[in-house]
Amino acid sequence: QVRVVESGGGFVQAGGSLRLSCAASGSGFSINTMGWYRQAPGKQRELVARITSGGSTNYADSVKGRFTISRDNPKNTVYLQMNSLKPADTAVYYCNAEGSNWRMGVRNVGYWGQGTQVTVSS
User: Fold this and answer.
1) What pLDDT digit, counting tens, does each position of 29-75 carry?
2) How many CB atoms lie within 10 A of CB 27?
3) What is the pLDDT of residue 38?
4) What are the φ and ψ backbone dihedral angles of 2, each rounded to 5 degrees?
5) How do strand 10-13 and strand 116-121 relate by DSSP bridges?
6) Cβ atoms 83, 12 nearer than 8 A
7) Residue 24 three-state SS
8) Is the distance from CB of 63 to CB of 90 less than 8 angstroms?
9) Dihedral in degrees, nearest 10, Cα atoms 22, 17, 70, 48
10) In this structure, which of 35, 45, 68, 98 has its CB flanked by the most CB atoms within 10 Å?
């Protein structure tokens, strides 16, 4: 069983900060890339940031300069530090862990967390 669990969401005023955490676990699962996605009401799910096992990162233009993604490989955990939050950042944030499932004998499989709500008020 592969589990992806997010935490750290909450309510914050505009200009405030939050740090999201995502822990991935499961035997036979080798993580390559982990990413944060978000979905606002009535909107499509979009990529926020992603990070490879080697530390390469990508950010959506809307969050670049404000959000920072990082990971702790030994703990199989990825973080999203969100600063200067705006009401437009309000969404459910989902963590995705992609890698190889050795038990299934496949590569490039992704697992989603259940999501954590981030609400930014003006």
Assistant:
1) 999 999 999 999 999 999 999 999 999 999 999 999 999 999 998 88
2) 9
3) 98
4) -105, 130
5) parallel
6) no
7) strand
8) no
9) 80
10) 35
| Residue 39 identity (one-letter amino acid) | Q
List Cα–Cα distances, 83 to 12, 17, 63, in angstroms.
11, 4, 9
CA pair distance 30, 108, nearest whole angstrom: 10
Rg (CA), the chain: 14
Give the tokens for residue 64: 């670049």
Q: Count CB-CB contacts under 10 A for residue 26.
A: 17
* Rounded Cα–Cα distance for residues 22 and 50 (Å): 12
Q: Check: CB of residue 93 under 8 Å from CB of residue 116.
A: yes
Residue environment code for 73-107, b if the CB has 16+ CB neighbours within 10 A, otherwise e = eeebbbbbebeebeeebbbbbbbbbbbbbeeeeee
